[in-house]
Amino acid sequence: MGGRQVSELRRASTVCLVRDLDTVEVLMVQRPHTARFMPGVWVFPGGVVDDTDARPPAAFAPIDDSSDWKVAAARELMEETGIWLTSTGTHTLPIVSHVFDAVAESSHRIDLDQLIYFSNWITPSVFPIRFDTRFYFAVSTVGEAAAFNPDELIGATWVSPIDALQREDADDWAIAFPTRRVLELLASEPSAAGLADRLTSMDIVPPIQPRLLVGAEEARIVLPDDPDFAAAGAQQDDPTILERLADVVASGARVPVEFKKRT
Question: Model-level pTM?
Answer without folding.
Answer: 0.93
